[in-house]
Amino acid sequence: MCVGLSAKVVSVNKDTALVDASGARREVSAELLDDLEPGDYVMVHAGVAIAKITPEDEE
Q: 38 is in which domain, residue-wise?
């Protein structure tokens, strides 16, 4: 079973994104996602943002 973590995108720099997951900020790869912007929510697995999610999904 794979475990993913939902996080809010704080900033984007080329192929990486700074995300905030319940107050913990870390840099993850954003290579798999197009048009990622600050304020988007993403699912993170193994240091990679793998999918955009809605704020309702995040809850």
A: 5-58
